[in-house]
């Protein structure tokens, strides 16, 4: 089996699947087989040889990472280590330079065609990407829309829900994040923590299987930060979601995550269960980072 690398036919707007070298392995089909984990079950998310470069700068360096179904993974590390880029390439906001990504047992960045793996078509990409929701640091709400309108827009436009169906779903989700009384408020009438909770409800309205959180509390003061983290705790305990969270909140990572991954220079230097990771880090770079974090508190 071979992989076609001719992506000239793809328009710039579809550059998320235009890669210099989609696969670096001799047999691309082999990467689709389940690895160790739950017997017979493929990971919910798999990064295979994922590389991302900006010019001469390598931000992700041939990364291999499996995320199990319903697993909660905290991603930590110094600035510029590739943490947020990992989420952005998974959300196809940035194109890969090399490697491939799978979601829910099928390729995201590629698809099968005539027994080959080729760069994904826009239709395939939209379908697989619909399984992923992302919440950003900066909220990204539409300022001219109420909390309710922000939450119903994508389900109506992308999923084809009726206004009634989308509104019912949105009201349930805004209630879930504690904002049932703020449905008709505009972003400018909401605190930062409330805006972030609307952003979480908006992402959940698409019924994703995977939720990505990129430094969602970094722009908030401690009290508002607690509001948002409590919502994420509730999502983790009450809903079957696979969750990847880039965070500087070490206490929350230790309490919430099933696994912690420490990134440095585009690679995972160390990973493990939170208790083990924080109590007895093995790698010198991890130890150095955790000391610096502790001293900064």
Automatic annotation (TrEMBL):
Pfam families: ABC_tran. Keywords: Amino-acid transport, ATP-binding, Cell inner membrane, Cell membrane, Membrane, Nucleotide-binding, Transport. The keyword Lipid biosynthesis does not apply. It is a peripheral membrane protein. Residues 45-290 form the ABC transporter domain. Belongs to the ABC transporter superfamily. This is Glutamine transport ATP-binding protein GlnQ. It comes from Paraburkholderia phenoliruptrix.
């Amino acid at each position: 089996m071979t992989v076609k690398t001719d992506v000239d036919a793809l328009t710039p707007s579809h550059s998320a699947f235009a890669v210099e070298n989609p696969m670096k392995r001799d047999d691309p089909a082999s990467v689709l087989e389940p690895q160790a984990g739950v017997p017979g079950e493929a990971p919910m998310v798999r990064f295979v040889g994922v590389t991302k470069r900006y010019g001469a700068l390598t931000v992700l360096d041939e990364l291999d990472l499996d995320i199990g179904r319903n697993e909660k993974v905290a991603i930590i590390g110094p600035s510029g280590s590739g943490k947020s880029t990992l989420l952005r390439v998974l959300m196809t906001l940035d194109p890969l330079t090399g490697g491939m990504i799978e979601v829910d047992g099928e390729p995201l960045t590629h698809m099968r065609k005539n027994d080959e793996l080729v760069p994904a078509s826009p239709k395939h990409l939209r379908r697989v990407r619909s399984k992923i929701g992302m919440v950003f640091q900066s909220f990204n709400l539409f300022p001219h829309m109420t909390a309710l309108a922000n939450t119903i827009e994508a389900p109506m436009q992308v999923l084809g829900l009726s206004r009634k169906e989308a509104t019912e779903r949105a009201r349930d989700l805004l209630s879930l994040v504690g904002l049932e009384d703020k449905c008709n408020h505009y972003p400018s009438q909401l605190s930062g923590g409330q805006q972030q909770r609307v952003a979480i409800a908006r992402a959940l309205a698409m019924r994703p299987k995977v939720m990505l959180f990129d430094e969602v509390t970094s722009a908030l003061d401690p009290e508002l930060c607690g509001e948002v983290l409590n919502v994420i705790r509730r999502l983790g305990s009450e809903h079957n979601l696979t969750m990847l969270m880039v965070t500087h909140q070490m206490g929350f990572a230790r309490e919430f995550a099933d696994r912690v991954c420490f990134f440095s220079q585009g690679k995972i230097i160390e990973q493990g269960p939170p208790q083990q990771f924080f109590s007895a880090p093995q790698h010198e770079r991890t130890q150095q980072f955790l000391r610096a974090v502790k001293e900064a508190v």
